[in-house]
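On clarity, I found the account of how folds are encoded harder to follow than it need be. For illustration, here is how one protein appears when written out as sequence plus structure tokens.
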Amino acid sequence: MAKINLLPWRAQVRKQREREFYMMLGGAFAAAVLAVLLWVFWMNMRIEDQDARNNYLTQQSKELDGKLEEIKKLEQTKTALTMRKQIIEQLQANRSQMVHLFDEMVKTIPEGARLNALKQAGDTLTLNGFAQSNASVASYMRNLDASPWLTHSDLQKTEAAKAGEKRDRFAFGLTVKLTDPDAKAKAKAEAEAKANGITLPAPDKNSKPGGGAAEAPKPATPQPEKTLPAAATPGSPS
């Protein structure tokens, strides 16, 4: 006989499908919740890692700021020490300047002239005195310019003395610059070479043996004269 199912099988199938649908929906929801939890956990880990990096960078930045402060202090100390060193070197270089200065004052003063005042401001000397004639003043200026320690003498005044002895007919005042003998000799050599149209070689070229370019200017490089002119023989200051 044919089997006839009189039960409501369609309702049972529908319920079965509904149960499967809800199960799939619940599984999808659980998977979504799990995915969200995993994503939140991963993002929290990244945030914590980035916070750790930020804290490390902040700490390193503070350490660098401290090191920069130390470097600034060291730079200030270095600047102060450099200034002290320069001052000490300058004092060391000028230690014998006064001795040479007074020695040159004695050597350059001509007969018929005497000084009554001397003032130094930096590398400038102001000389005031009396002379028998203007020729004595001119001879004195020539002697000063010929000195290896003095240069650029400049006459400030010369006038007849108001009263005094016969030897004090003219009162004069002049300024003169203190200089280094080596620098003065070099400047003089360069000036003479320029006047003669000769180009002085660089110092490193002069040290090369047998170099034609270095040998040519040697005869045109005069040595600074240490003796006074014959017409201005220095006398003892009165």
